[in-house]
User: Fold these one by one.
Assistant:
Number 1:
Amino acid sequence: MRRILPIAILALLWGSTLMGQSNLTVSGLGFFQDRSMDARLSFLNNVESDVAIDLDAAILEDSAFLLLEQMKRKGYLEPTIEGRMCVGDTERSVYWQGDYAIQLEVDFVAEAVEFIITPGVLSYYDAVVVDGVHAIEAKQVERFFIPGGVLFSGKKARVFTYENFERRQGRLLRALDDLGYRSAQVVNQQIDIDPVSGAVQVELTIEQGPLYQIGELEIVITRAGGEHEVRKEPAQRVVFTREWEQAKRAALRNEAYRAGYPDATVSSEIVADSEEQAGVILRHLRYRVDYGQAVTLQQIEFDGDTATKRSVLKRQVELKAGEPLDLIAVSEARRQLMGLGIFQEVGLQLEPTSGDARSVVYALSPSQRKELQLRAGWGSYEQARLGFRWEHRSPWGRAHRYEVEVKQSFKSTLGEATYSIPQFLGTELTTYLNAEYNYREELSFDRRAQGMAVGTSMQLSDTGLRLAVEYGFSQENADRLDLVSFESEEDATVASVTFKASLDRRDDFLAPSSGYSLYASLETAGQWLGGSVNFQKLELGGSYHSSLSESILFHAGLQGGTIFTTGAAEDNIPFNERFFSGGENSVRGYVEGGASPRDSGGDEVGSESYLLLNLELEQRIYSQLSTVFFFDSVLNARDGFFDREREVLSSIGFGLRYQTVVGPLRLEYGHNLNPRDSDSDGALHFSIGFPF
């Protein structure tokens, strides 16, 4: 089988190569780039790459021009294209160079052509000097042209073209504009390109101009019948930016929308500029608001997606016929419809487009209702993880959904099904019913749990806070070999109520570089809820991420938990509920669960309380490759925080990370600083995903 797979891949590639051949081919850039350029050329010429075409002078000249332009966009400013053309029994070579010029006669026709590309020297930004900018730090100004954030920046990351130079120059001017320097402009520029190395030296002189602030405002409101209202606001002396200007327009327009004037328009004009002080100008403005005609709501209509019940849709739209048409409320209802999670897009239009009574029409474009996702991953302990996730949205036309997920690894089996109802009873709550089976081989025991849970959650969009409450009922079993050295409840029926809260302010949950996250969970289990044990379990934690320099990131994670009971611990705390530290996302000098307290026989028995600290310094080498230095430490208390038998286990280590679309691919080694007698010196981990 191992021999067949490479042969099959080679056969597929060879077949694709043959299929890509025609009487027009591209070469000179290497196999993959040649085929990419060939496909690009076929697309731009609107021809099939595997079909012979008529090669007249027009198609040949157009192809040469397009290839030259494509190479210039890649940073090769002086490419050469050789066209080797077959005409009967003869071959003719024609050259096109950096500055395109027509080379073929009007009536020329070839039977086949091979375009051989000689890219030339890659042009790249070597140094950029910008004079005249004081509102932005010089290092930040340079970053508009030369990317930072990494230890090494290769030439391909700093490609120079005249097009990207204009774009980056424009972004710098817009940044100054956003800071209030509305008249900033380039007064001089010099570009020197080394023809041998491709190094580009750029010198720019920018006239930053004065800082504009908001002066006096005059607001003129015109209503139907010629009624005028004039409001005046004193000078605010805040920075005059496009963002402020757009926000002011939106506020005036929304004021009219809420009053039932959906055709309201806002325009502005400069009344005068006055110098407040040296380098600062007050800009006095006049805003004109034309309310237009007052409009009442005639009715609500839904167009498209007949499979979804109209009663479900109407619950999302709190609008009444006969009242003023509030366009803000109409837009909010559109967002409510999108919040059901079953539409790809919800269009909005008013019918008719004029008149004093109009209907609101929501055009519904359904999203994909059934989706199968294959899952794969890797962890040092579980090794390969494979599975799938099946989701069916709005199966009964009521915007409900159900999900089924199955995962299998060398150490565990997981099966889970969830049925959820968004915006339950017209509220922001999502209610769900969940069933789960989980089997996992730990270091010194086998864990098994199966159960059901019902809960509800709510996302507070203004704050990013997510709240949830859940009732769960499960059967938990632990298969241990040594039941004498440490007594615990091996088989328990757990009935509990859990309260959860989380706040995520990270810039990217897959690979964060700034921001923070917090979470808290409190579980109360009791016989009064239908179980066989009584305990409380509290977990708190969070992470913080920040940049120490352009290429160095700092990550910190702190989490802790405790489980306690008013009765005897060995009768009320299930073994499965204990905390087991260690592994690729915990203390990395140990395997999964290996940094846990042990009994007299050397088996891991977990802790009733723990406090875990993770610290990392990440050095970005290239845009996707980083090195990581980390320190992990856990404080374990086998029988609770008030027990005297506490232990601290720590490790330091080094790792490599490669960023992928599913998170960082991690190779890390943790060395134990204070191993116990039976502990190893360290552990090597290979995994996918950010650790905390």
Number 2:
Amino acid sequence: MDLVTFSMSALIFFPLAAAALIAFIPGDRKNVIRYATLLATMVLLGGVLLGMTFGGNETIAFDIQQAGMQNVVSLPWIPTFNIDYFLGFDGISFPLVVLTALISALAMGASWTIDKHVKGYCVLYLVLLGGMMGVFISLDFFLFYIFWEVMLLPMYFLIGVWGGPRKEYAAIKFFLYTLFGSVLMLVAILMIFFNSDLRQLTPQQLVDSRVRLAGVEQIGSPVEHLAAATKYQELIAAQETPVHTFNILALQQMGQHTELFDREAFFGQSLQWWAFVLLFIGFAIKLPSAPFHTWLPDAHVEAPTPISMILAGVLLKMGGYGIIRICYPICPDAGYDLAWVVCSIGVLSMIYGAFAALAQSDFKRMVAYSSVSHMGYVVLGLGVWSATVVGDPVSWNMGVKGALFQMIGHGISSAGMFFMVGVIYDRVHHRDLNQFGGLFGKMPVYTSMAIILFFAGLGLPGLCGFIGEAFVVLSVWKFSALLAVAGAFVVILTAGYILWAVQRVYLGPEYKGKHEEALTEINLREMAIAVPLCVLAILFGVLPNTVFRYMDATVDAQVQDLATWTKETKIPRLQQERAEQEKTAAAVAPRLDQQAADVVAAKGEI
């Protein structure tokens, strides 16, 4: 096993191995279990940060100049169905890998208040971490789906066992919603797989897809050179039956350079149209977008604080990641046609989530609905496509980068907001906004950090929440000025519920709830979690290029590929359809004129 294979696999299997070792620690040694789990998350974070810092080394290092997949691992897994153990990351997935490692380590620090079944909690927590990493670095569709499902069970138990009074209801609701989306995704995956055919790709496209060689040179090695790809293409071209694949990169090439997914499926719509819709619904449930969002407030309210941090900071981002990684590159024709639908869903989520947050009296539920609103910016930014019709991919480029930055910024601010709510809840055991007040006088250090994080969620310039929202609103202007104005208007609503909550909780004359004596200043453990989030919220707001520099090359390349597809494939297709419609109308017009003349003549005779 080479170093790259070991390092990439460690992102997934190191947390699982740590979980297996922790399972052997006696359950009554709670602090040992906690520290062991924290150490595992810190080691994983350290490895990822080293890869981020020292680009170019033969580990999990990341080269910001490279647009394609890096640190690719491709090993045969189920050769009968061309299913591979296929891992890698690029400028879209690597920032999310770093975010996952960071939030997981901080959330484990916030788990010290968990006192029931500590060993079971820590084992499930590490299994969840391994599943989240697997989703972001899997490049085989089948493997991606497995890790997507792996996350479901530990999160179900983490909410259902360690949650609040209605934990069973919230856990079942989360499970059913996510499972429903997963079933739709599975149907779409099968539709795409059984219509794929590697024989349709050119040797260069096979190289770009890192497709596995079979029968050429070394069996089991990914194709990396044009000569080997040419031999492989000649080999599979002689086969009489299609060569199906789950390779996500190959499926992207098929979606943009072949007509394999364009055949009519149901009700006059193409196969890729239906695949896009099914995949989008599955990912929109995870985001979540209205009207698929109703599981989120219940899950957040009942989940313990660290699990709410994971849920908001990482799990929601998987929906946006799936849309930009899978939906648009594999189903570009459907993405183009449904741009208005996607953008409208994004704006609806933004407005609905903001109004719902304004109506809440539960502090945690308010923050939960704010996530629905903020993730609407992600959907809107990813949906801004048809501005490329005029030969200007800049708008969509700005939208995609704004959406990805929003995912990172929201991961920091939302995890911070949920943690700050949890700090108060651990002391006074309630979240009623109407019973708070005057916390600044009792907990000034805590209040100062909480205001930084809540203002980051507000989108205040100079903090991490502003950049992504601003880029998304700017990107949508060419697509629709009305949607741009609506997106800008949501900023006012966001300021409304954030400032109102700050005024009711931290300012005001006095605290009106129970357990006032428990309102003590934030301790060192809590500061160790809050300070990094506050620092990053400021850093990403003041120096946004600390994030953009990692995604620029990859996003530029993907947007340019789809802009080229729009110009060379979609526009000629639309022009041809328009010409055929005009030709049909011209052929029908004389008959209609003759029929009208006959009617007039008949009336004259009468």
Number 3:
Amino acid sequence: MSRTRLYLFDTTLRDGAQTAGVEFSLEDKIAITAMLEELGVDYIEGGYPGANPVDTAFFEQRRTKRASFTAFGMTKRAGRSADNDPGVQALLQSQADATCFVAKAWDYQVELALGSTTDEHLEGLAETVRVAAAAGKEVLIDLEHFFDGYKANPTYALACVTAALDAGARWVVLCDTNGGTMPSEVREIVGTVLEHAPGEKLGIHPHDDTGQAVANALAAIEMGVCQVQGTLNGLGERCGNTNLVSLIPTLMLKPYYAQRFETSITLERLARLTHISRAFDDRLNRAPARQAPYVGASAFATKAGIHASALLKDFSTYEHVTPESVGNERSIMVSQQAGKSNLLTALARHDIRIEKDDPRLEKLLAEVKQREAFGYSYDGADASFCVLAHEVLGTLPSFFEVEHYRAMVERRHNAQGEEMTVTEAVVKLRIDGELLMSVAEGNGPVNALDQALRKDLGKYSALIEDVELADFKVRILDGGTGAVTRVLVESRDASGERWVTIGVSPNIIDASFEALYESITYKLLKTEAALGSTVTAHRRPVLAAG
């Protein structure tokens, strides 16, 4: 039986940015795009070029390699042509492959929000589509409040669908903007829409205000819609959007859907789902939801008792899919089973080959679990995992040893009598027995330590001169005066590669320095073959900030 192709449209960088407490920097957007590319979605909607400096900068160049790079905006304003509308032109002049225009499918919204008429709005919708298609863009129309609009005035709502398709739109997306539509209503209304438009031209975009966004997406798919829009971990305003992290494995692993539909995601990419979900949360400085379907730490966890006993005999008894299929792991709390297969997969990503019965694997697994109990999280800090693995396996070259570091912040007045803050850092390290000391000033203690650490690395200096600090995030894991601090440092080099390292300590400076140290170590590890370094066991420095 031939399967229907479903297209996955991710709107994390736009819809997700509307989440309370979430602000994406340009570096965040670039890094999240890489996560989405790793997952393998078809479309990545990056935001609204021209609306703010971050989105404008993001669309100055193409940011995707495989997915369709998509810009979001509004159809032309009433009273002017699409050629003379700055918002429309900003989208057409961006480096996006596709443009997603939002239009009002509810007559009440047209009159209330736009102060326009339905006829005028339909004319503007069609003109916008024609101009964008003529500019070589793949055009999508997001019909905002479609389901509410259909209930109020089905004639106008359906006219929006046909006007967009007649003008040349590739996709018309039906939006449940306030998230209040029930799955039964979605089936009924989508069924009617399919009498006027083919399923291969239709998309669904449910919000999660009743906790049914994934169910509504599945209902639309079952009826024949071929595109679904959602976000990583269900991010979005109010209660969020369709959670692609829950929807994708359901489509791929549940026989009813897997036998009828296919997506762009491979089983190999699906096995990275848990890692991507948690790395995304780490970037947002928030704790991953432990009970999240498929990817939560408790998704395959069972305490002692009859369930655990049954699991020991047949794991499928209480698991609807295998944990490994989504990159998660089984946790039976009385025996602390599992973890080795995931560890072997993670090691293979760094070209570290080890047999599954190698006793060092047990040692590494124990070390990872111990560190995670203290506050480390390697899902979002893969470079630190690489360094740790080499260390525990005894294959970490002894590049340099840090003997001492100090960071000092001083508030003083300059020659003009203006109050200013000066930060200075000192780092002493030893390479091949030679003691090197560097002093640097920076914009804060972390920047100063970063500058001092990289200022003079002896024979390795040329190998790290293109390394720069791209992002820095701090999260307090436990409140109170004895709080544990987790620091994530993102670095990049001239090749375009980015990597994230982690440091954890009650002292924020100590945690920051650990992450900086591992960033440099990881960079040197990448060039180990060229260095011809002697491979020796090498313990990381555990120093208190001076």
Number 4:
Amino acid sequence: MADPSSYRPKPGQIPDSPGVYKFRDEHRRVIYVGKAKSLRQRLANYFQDLANLHPRTRTMVTTAASVEWTVVSTEVEALQLEYSWIKEFDPRFNVKYRDDKSYPYLAVTVGEEFPRVQVMRGAKKKGVRYFGPYAHAWAIRETVDLMLRVFPVRTCSAGVFKRSAQIGRPCLLGYIGKCSAPCVGRVTAEEHRELAADFCDFMAGRTGTYLRRLEQQMRDAAEEMEYERAARLRDDIEALRRAMEKNAVVLADATDADLIAVAEDELEAAVQIFHVRGGRVRGQRGWVTDKVEAVDTAGLVEHALQQLYGEESGDAVPKEVLVPALPEDPEAVGQWLTGRRGSNVSLRIPQRGDKKDLMATVQRNAQQALALHKTRRASDLTTRSRALEEIAEALELDSAPLRIECFDISHLQGEDVVASMVVFEDGLARKGEYRRFQIKSFEGQDDVRSMHEVITRRFKRYLQEKQKTGEWSDDEAVTEEDGRPKRFAYPPQLVVVDGGQPQVAAAQRALDELGVDDVAVCGLAKRLEEVWLPGEDDPVVLPRSSEGLYLLQRVRDEAHRFAITYQRSKRTKRLKAGPLDVVPGLGDSRKQALIKHFGSVKKLRSATIDQICEVPGIGRRTAETIAAALASAAPAAPAVNTATGEIMEDDGGSTND
């Protein structure tokens, strides 16, 4: 733990202006990002008596080894810069909301020549209009199925659309009236685009005018005794009303608003968002976060707004944003939201009426989400801390191993030998820092030698980075472009190997040979889940109910899974490889042309060079290379006379294809 006074800047050095600040640890990793109206006043709060600080803030400032700041001209710029740095550096002490799922959206690809209606998840794309998010994909499909009767917009994939255009026949939806079949020219691109625009208008809440128009058309058709048309319009109106009923009417004034509620305790917080468009709840989503920094409800709301609107398009920001508590600087946040939308956005706390009642509903959802999360996680923050403390005590470490790396060897009967390295920080997986290795120094199966090689390679890279400038005196020794870690730049406090005494001894020997003496090593044997230490004849036995043992098992199992996945992918590629794959410069197209021409590799192997040259795109030199490669791939096969292009028979041998 660092003494904050050792890196505290002098008060006169800190500007009294808006800005964003970063705390870094001893390895120059960014561990916290914050913003302030006055950098001088805010940073002074971190360097007071440690006893007066919140426990999480105290942990952060004692973990940090330096602080730096960037001055900006306005609070809005500070908000934007803070958000971009949190996204870039992923600081461990900042609040980070985690979606427990990827919420589905109803999407219309308005940027295409023939817009398509579909379900989309993940990052939003340009040229696509989104509605939602929805809790379930089936809810989107039910709504779309009802609306296609009135708005027969294309829903098929590009492949189906292209196929229908080629054969001149629409798909099933075209025959049953749920697609206008632009693929076969039943409507023009302009007419289909108008259908898509009407679909989007209806989904955006502009329903009343459209329904009144349909009702008038139905009455006109009935007066003109066009009863079939009137019946069809009646059914269309009923279908649209059923689609509207799936989104309950909650506000009578056609309000466009997002309502955000927060439920929290000392350790965690849950955020729920209801998206109201046209007075109806069009979507819902929720996040859960660890309160890794000292943050109140206002701070949680501000982080939620950053997460919600930081990457959204302008039209996704509504006219009103209703929150349970205003951020510390509501005017700056309001200006930022207005800039994102392109017009004024009202950020406020609902005080009375329907909006306050709906906010109470959102609040109940947040409380239920937090309770459900706690049930699933079983106070995971507490158990993680206890697990690290139990590991430190059992292995007699000086402090809890905040970074653990685990290594596993995987192979199949001595072939495709690979290794994995997984990383856990604060008891959580850091998948972005996982690494995988191919064993290079020898062939065959030897888990002990493999473990020695992998540990040597991993820590040799660490030493190379460390030795560039001594003891991390230069940022470039560990970072790329201001804070991004290089591979293998940071040492763990604990190395876990999958195995018993031999693997542990090999790992320790590798560290000793490199002169690394500040990293602890242990092994976890699968049979009895015993923990082995270097040089010890007896294992450390942790209780079966131990949280420390459970964490070591999770780390070991994750390393095993990662290694198995890599080994299987290598084996699959090897098994799929054919004799033509070794021919240099021979691409997939010419391979397919050869197989199509001869029918099989067996017939190709028996062909002369002149016959191979008959394949389009195959010259004589390539044909000679192919013949030679096929001959070497089957040693018992007949040899090829490259001078004459003839097959030379060997009476004393046999041919095995």
